[in-house]
Amino acid sequence: MKLDTKGTASYFLVWAMFVPFLCLSTARAPWPSGPGSVTEIASMHTARASQSCTLLPNGKVLIAGGFAGSGGESNPYRTTELYDPRAGVFEPAASMSTGRSGHTATLLKNGKVLVVGGWTGRYQIRRSAELYDPATNTFTSTGNLVVERAGATATALPDGRVLIAGGEDREENKLASAEIYDPATGVFTLTGSMAEPRAAHTATALKDGKVLIAGGGSGHYPSQNVYRSAELFDLATGKFSATGDMTVGRHKHAAILLRNGKVLIVGGSDNRDWRGEYASAEIYDPSTGTFKATGTMHTARFKIPEAVALLPNGKVLVAGGGSFAELYDESTGTFTKVPGSLEAARFFANVTGFPDGKVLITGGYADDGSGLPATPAAWLYQP
Questions:
Q1: Which domain, by its residues, includes 307?
Q2: How far is CA 250 from the centre of its chain?
Q3: Rounded to two decimals, what is the model's pTM?
Q4: What is the CATH number of the domain that holds 312?
């Protein structure tokens, strides 16, 4: 076949003229409008539920502690691992000083991670806390909590300190107390107490610097109290004050700050626990101090405190407590199912959002009739 060199030259001339416009168009392309998808990736080294996941300044994710499944709180893990999004693999990291589940992990302004409290064994809780340094891949001890607690919330405050609120003691009595960790001194100090003792609640930092504490419960199953009430912590006064009530009582739910300054509350359950799961969601408006119902999820979900992530486009990915993920759109108040399967409902799974809109989903345990085992599996949401 004879090559038409004249035609080929003309083709490349036109293409060369077109490329700059193509590149310009691509650079200005809007965020993808579809729901994206969830796909399974390489597994963690350890099957984990109730682990903590923290996005580090170097782009990796620190995955710490957790346990092997429901009822496995008696043997929480000391081990940690790092997810490298560039290589798409998990790599072993330094071990903590003690096993922990139901602990908190908070990124500090200095780039270190504060790991606090948690269950360290069956009916065992330590007051200890430690710091992970990504630069040296080491954990070092820091000050002890004033009150031993597991299932507390930890919230980074505008001044760099961290608010630790509620949780429960080793006898599973719920706590109203709160304390503040100061990275400058490595010391925890008691602050004002909440009006209600709470565990399985949420804590969300608002744009005005206050912290919204919502729901949770007290008492012991099956005679537990699950709250509709919410409170605001004010750093300026060190005190909690009442705000509006949620539309329903929730615990083991999730909450996340939206771009518009409002807070999305999703799922959870009432005092029946497994028999009282919610598909409902609601919005807290700080300007009015009120909650209002919004769209309903496609499935009921609970045990999801760390299973939501805010995407760069303002949508929220919910990827725990169900066998699939879904997206919440604040502009329409609706949820959309995301293609791809998590194979089973994943309770106490963890999600971590990246700046490019991808989200890492790790672990959790499943109600599959075989003892509620945790999984080492991991998935990646891609927009």
A1: 247-383
A2: 17
A3: 0.90
A4: 2.120.10.80
